[in-house]
């Protein structure tokens, strides 16, 4: 099983491509124009704003990645071809246990992600009606439940 490692700036194009593939598979509420709006932001701003961690496949290709800042999981994306194989869970466990994250924001329309984080011990603590750009994509704020929560 591949280790969780730090990528380099040379991996940003691959990370952005993985982001796009994952978003197209999971964010059916986004229009093509929304993806075109966010993609350069991911590539040129968001990746630099977080501490990145990846899981690579046997061939060296990135299969999943996450970005964290302080106690916040800012992003977690898994290639559509390997979703539901435990890679997201591995990254999240690492983020919680080794990096001290306790918060995550989720698009309300991304029901699979919401269910995933709830199964992993997070609960909704707040809601914004729009995203940071004022777009009509409600954001749910989630926090790790206190001790005694059921985490897989």
Automatic annotation (TrEMBL):
Q: Which PANTHER family match?
A: PEPTIDYL-LYSINE N-ACETYLTRANSFERASE YJAB (PTHR43800)
What PROSITE patterns does the entry give? GNAT
Instruction: Indicate whether Membrane appears among the record's keywords.
Output: no
GO terms of molecular function: acyltransferase activity, transferring groups other than amino-acyl groups
Reply yes or no: does the keyword Secreted apply. Answer: no
Keywords on this record? Acyltransferase, Transferase
* Occurrences of domain N-acetyltransferase (ranges): 2-147
Return the protein name: GCN5 family acetyltransferase
Kindly name one Pfam family recorded for this protein: Acetyltransf_10
Q: Which InterPro entries match?
A: Acyl_CoA_acyltransferase, GNAT_dom
Q: This protein's superkingdom?
A: Bacteria
């Amino acid at each position: 099983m591949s280790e969780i490692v730090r990528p380099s700036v040379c991996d940003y194009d691959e990370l952005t491509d993985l982001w796009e593939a994952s978003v197209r598979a999971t964010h059916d509420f986004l229009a093509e124009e929304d993806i075109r709006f966010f993609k350069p932001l991911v590539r040129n701003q968001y990746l630099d704003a977080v501490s990145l961690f990846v899981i690579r496949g046997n061939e060296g290709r990135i299969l999943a990645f996450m970005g964290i800042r302080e106690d916040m999981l800012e992003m977690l994306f898994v290639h559509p071809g390997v979703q539901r194989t435990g890679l997201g869970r591995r990254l999240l466990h690492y983020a919680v246990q080794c990096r001290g994250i306790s918060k995550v924001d989720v698009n309300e329309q991304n029901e699979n992600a919401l269910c995933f984080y709830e199964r992993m011990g997070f609960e909704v603590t707040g809601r914004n009606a729009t995203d940071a750009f004022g777009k009509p994509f409600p954001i749910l704020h989630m926090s790790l439940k206190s001790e005694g929560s059921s985490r897989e």
